[in-house]
Amino acid sequence: MNRRDLLTCHVTDKSRPAASMGPEFYTNAVLRTHENKPVKFYDDLIRGKISLINFIYTGCTKSCPRSTGNLVKAQKLLGDRVGRDVFMYSITIKPEEDDPEVLRSYARSHGARPGWLFLTGSDYDLTTIRFKLARWDHPKLDFDPDQHTGMVRYINDSLNLWTMCPTYATPRQLVECVSWIEPTKPFAARLRENYVKQAEIDRETRQAEPPRSVFRRAHGWPA
Amino acid sequence: MKKVPRESAKSKKQKPNTIEQTTHGNGMTRRTALKLGAAAGTLTVLTSRKSLATSMMFDTVPPEPTVCSPNPTHSPATTPFVQALPIPPVLRPFKLNPAPTKSANLAAGEAPRADHQRWEEFLPQNNYDMNLIPANHTFHPDLGPTYCWTYNGIYPGPTIIGQYGIPIVVRFHNNLPVDHTGFGSNTHTTHLHNGHTASESDGFAGDFWGPGFFKDHHYPNIYAGYDTFGAPGDPREAMRTFWYHDHRHSFTATNNYRGLNGMFLLYDDIDTGYETGGDHNALHLPGQYGLYDIPLNFTDKKFCPDGQMFATAPDAVPAGDKFIVNGAIQPFFQVAQRKYRFRMLNSGPARIWTFSLSGGKKFILIATDGNLLEHPVEKDSLELHVSSRYDAVIDFSDVPIGQSIYLSNIAPQFVSNAPEPLPDPNVNINNVVMRFDVTTTAQDHSVVPDTLCQYPDLNLNEVVTTRIWNFNLENGQFKVNGLIFDANRADATVKQGTAETWIIRNKLPASGWTHPVHIHLEEGRILSRNGAPPPPEESGRRDVYPIRPGEEVHIFLRFREWFGKYMIHCHNLGHEDNFMLVRWDVGTETSLVTSPVDSLGNPNPEAQPNPDPPILSRLYNKKGVLA
After folding, report:
1. Could you tell me which chain B residue has the CA closest to the CA of A23?
2. Is the CB of residue B599 less than 8 Å away from at least one CB of chain A?
3. Do A127 and A91 contact (CB within 8 A), yes or no?
4. CATH code for A3-180?
5. pLDDT digit string (tens) for A40-97?
6. Domain layout of chain A by residue ranges
7. Strand pairing of B214-219 and B241-246?
8. What is the reported pTM?
9. Would you give the end-to-end CA distance of chain A in angstroms?
10. Is A210 an 8 Å CB contact of chain B?
């Protein structure tokens, strides 16, 4: 094991969720927030939380502004959940350019609200985390900053459930993906949802599709 | 061969219903009782019924395994050829209780869906029951049993064998763990690839449902072109080798890797499944199922040092280093000196197999993606993309008894097998997928004729419009026509009863990814690949079109019989989970622009008015060949 890993992946805390992969997987690398506070990656950011993680750099003018803009809208839709059980993290892939000061003005200029941290740290730690959370499994792309994945990684550490959503998806989709990694609701609640969903489907399909006989007549076939 | 205790499950299943009827025998119908129960949020009747129905069958549901240490570099060593090739058992029809209905039977626990289209016209004659449950499966005796998600407790799932003209309903019960943690999602939807089925039975990626509910999928088993050709449809449109698999959006790779897939075959008067009998049209290809008509479901997986299947949460499913056929690692299959029909399926998640046989043996390719070729094609090697199927005949009649033929993947990445001295020095054990041992003689009535079928007419005058689908990686996200998949947004509407030409491009020259593009509902014909006519093995009807970097493929498609939402998507399971899908609808009008707006209603800069179809008529002659 690398000496560095020994320092950052210290012994597992007993209070972590049973399903979690823990700091052995996520590392407990010390990162710095845009408020210039040191945080341990697993203990302070991941443990027991639902986290939305994406990778940016402030000098990225191609895709990052739109990505961050979408996440700002998603944060609004999530409302007071952000900071309570859902946490958002944007991690820089160019720590040499993005110090806490730069990240703070980036966060402020986009209107990111509390519950969303912008993080920097050592290049080694950030690359390790990025390869664990959001790699293409494609060396050419994984080392090209312009092609860094534009996906948001969703992690529910309590259940060790993962999913992802493109940052260019709609804010509604970005919020919907949170529900995919939440605990399964009680049966009765889901049954009630089924009736609501069925009413929606009936409204759409029973109007949208013409009766078969109408269709057959339109094509000159016997009805 | 493992068997699911069908009878006991059946008897258990019917008992609870009588309990319900006596409980609510005071003039209240069962339905209202359930509705009231739902309204009150108690649901005792419903939940107890379900748990009773499943308890007998699934008493021994294994618990979810603990997480294996992140990413072992390679799987433990296994000795090749110690297991015989398993043949998935055939699923028997089952009397469903309650009986399937046209509208979703929410009170009985069915998930919401649109009404079955043309239900009265294609009333189901056979019903089948499928339970998605966790079960232990042994991929290799050296590894021991490992935790999987299965259809009816076995991996691969049981094979459904149907007949054209006999509509069926398959009821999929989601009994995946409610308290699921880790790899995959306990919500699910099943796609029959590539059934000519109505949208509500197609397993649309956004229409998934959770544990405790079921959904009826109606498979009318009609030939495409039923309406224009008249009942029972145009047998030239027959597709014969299907597979069913989980299609839950963003979890397709993980749920399939966990084991949620199986085969589905349809026979008819032409391809009867028997080598003798039938009318004058009958082909007499090698049969029957399990004897000389053998499914081969290829996949690759990775295993932890303790023998558990490696399945931890990180996004992409791992590139497997164990070659698995029908759930067994490197099996052997004892064959007789005669012809066999193999239905080769690549069930993913991502590997492109290139198969070859030892001793200079050739594959006689008779069908691509389940559709017979006009003439058989002899091939030294077969490139099988994810989700594609090849029906290949291998003739062992000239192989001496006692000799073996090795099926190898000649695009290898394989390690960690126990070394074994091999009789054939020309075969590299690390590439071998399975071994055929010729052990006996047998009569062979089967025939592979020079002409297997006639293709349906390819009439470019039917084409009303042309659409372009650009598959691309931009801003670190997979996009089609510059847009992200949204299950609630259709990027194109095609008019039922019309034909279109679709141009698929892989605008990804930098990455080296091939996208096996799959189109739901209809099989297409490749008009041209990079401006040239398709090679013989691509001239037939297909539903998966591998597009290599920078390639452009033109496809002719008709849209018939059904309405609703369908998809075109990359079938590399990791790519589709990363949103490389498009929803398109069959409706009553042709949309004149493809992908005009994103789901926020913003104009899409990559949207294109569909090119004028007459250009195509000038490009291609009447047979669809480039002029």
Report:
1. B70
2. yes
3. no
4. 3.40.30.10
5. 999 999 999 999 999 999 998 888 889 999 999 999 999 999 999 999 999 999 999 9
6. 3-180, 187-218
7. unpaired
8. 0.88
9. 74
10. yes
